[in-house]
Design brief:
Layout: E1 17-18, E2 25-26, E3 31-35, E4 38-44, E5 51-57
Antiparallel strand pairs: 1-2, 3-4, 4-5
Length: 70
């Protein structure tokens, strides 16, 4: 797993996502991982230290990936 560079993400990077625990806005995700038809985001709330993952699923493939080696 590698950390994705924000500019490589094909969609707009979400900002000010509310914490799933306390509701405080989080400026940006700690980690972005694009995949086939989805992008995963790891968020950490600095107000309550809660960590959670959010996944965006798209109808079309978000990033083209070469086939895995056999």
């Amino acid at each position: 797993m590698t950390k994705a560079v924000l500019s490589e993400t094909p969609r707009e990077t979400p900002k000010q996502n509310p914490c799933a625990q306390c509701g405080m806005p989080i400026p940006r995700p700690d980690w972005i991982e694009p995949g086939e038809g989805r992008v995963s985001y790891l968020w950490t709330c600095h107000a309550c230290n809660y960590r959670f993952e959010a996944v965006a699923i798209f109808d079309e493939v978000a990033v083209e990936h070469p086939p895995l080696a056999a």
